[in-house]
Backbone:
């Protein structure tokens, strides 16, 4: 079944956005009485039934909770430099949503080549991945910031920086404590500069690695998500 | 440093293939005496020095072992259906090499839409990912086979099938025993048919899931690699 997005009205009805209403009635040709999955992307997906097949403002009644997504612990924030080829970064956005990322922070680092902020396009890619993956929560895309600005924010939970430079590093999966909120920073092609690594360490980040293989920026960001999810999913 | 691929001559010299020799001498303009990374992709990368800058047959002397890749245990075989859009499957090939896959078995399943065998192109994608990731071992790409044919081969190690159908499933990361060889089967868009799942189970495969989120075929294949590697890398 397909997921449609909208908001709850005060009277308890669920109202699809205009775009979603059009898609639901004109494209997928749903009719009054049809059942669909509906969500406001704040943690729950409901099974609903169309009350009014209005192509501008379709309204639904909720029947039962279909899925609840845990968003109170083990929240994953990935701070990552956009890549030189934007399709690689867009690929990361789609896949990290599938992998259960909670927040994405594009980071402008010393060696970041591609500094264009495409937040509108990035947001659309995240939204469509959310629908494809039937996620009950929409990951937050934060506005791109310079790394040194980001380090001024005091994030809760564990904080890691994955870099390829020298110095002792443990495996991210071994350092991560199951269930805790976590922020992982991933550098651009060419990695963080030595100075950036030093800044992160002195800001309370712990150096971690993602295994023994060399990963591209976008693969590293996704690997971090899967490694953390594996720790959270393992008994 | 860049990785160049070739073979060991009986006299102990390392000979780059004609294509690699051309790339090394004509494109990256290396000269006699330059140091490079060389590998026959059978588990070791050496630091070598060019003895003869021949653009058709460059020869090198090995100086020291630079990297050894563990290929005797924890070997990961992913049996996966090619996807409808070939770029998604090619993306899986590149990323699974980065994630440390050992063997890739394209599987033709009941719902596999795209049955074109593009093994030449797929092999080139794997090779270039190997060089990019500095892997010391080239994952094996097996010729595409029908699922039922594959099930006749008796694979060593643990064997799992990841499907979205009903029935009890454990999380792949919890079921996998660290260090053991493993085969994981991933179905096409639309999943394995019920009959195919039954065939796999009766052939000794165990049903497993990759977490609570719905993943696309290519993402599922990569997720399996990262989940297994996480178990192998964790202390």
Residues:
């Amino acid at each position: 079944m397909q997921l449609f997005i909208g908001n709850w009205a005060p009277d308890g009805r669920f109202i699809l956005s205009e775009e979603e209403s059009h898609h639901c009635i004109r494209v997928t040709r749903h009719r009054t009485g049809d059942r669909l999955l509906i969500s406001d992307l704040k943690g729950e997906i409901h099974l609903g039934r169309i009350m009014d097949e209005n192509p501008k403002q379709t309204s639904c009644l909720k029947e039962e909770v279909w899925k609840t997504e845990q968003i109170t612990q083990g929240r994953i924030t990935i701070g990552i430099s956009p890549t030189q080829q934007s399709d690689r970064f867009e690929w990361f956005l789609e896949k990290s949503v599938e992998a259960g990322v909670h927040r994405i922070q594009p980071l402008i680092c010393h060696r970041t080549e591609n500094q264009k902020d495409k937040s509108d396009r990035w947001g659309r890619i995240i939204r469509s991945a959310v629908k494809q993956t039937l996620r009950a929560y929409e990951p937050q895309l934060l506005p791109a910031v310079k790394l040194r600005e980001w380090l001024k924010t005091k994030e809760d939970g564990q904080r890691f920086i994955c870099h390829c430079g020298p110095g002792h590093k443990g495996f991210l999966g071994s350092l991560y404590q199951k269930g805790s909120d976590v922020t992982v920073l991933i550098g651009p092609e060419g990695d963080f500069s030595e100075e950036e690594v030093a800044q992160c360490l002195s800001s309370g980040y712990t150096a971690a690695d993602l295994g023994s293989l060399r990963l591209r920026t976008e693969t590293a960001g996704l690997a971090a998500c899967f490694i953390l999810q594996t720790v959270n999913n393992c008994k």
Summary: Chain B touches chain A at residues 69, 91, 95, 98-100, 132-135, 171, 173-174, 211-216, 219, 222-223, 226-227, 229-231, 233-235 (CB under 8 Å). Residues 162 and 208 of chain B are 5 Å apart (CA to CA). Residues 3-68 of chain B form a domain with the Ribosomal Protein L25; Chain P fold (CATH 2.40.240.20). The longest strand of chain B covers residues 59-68.
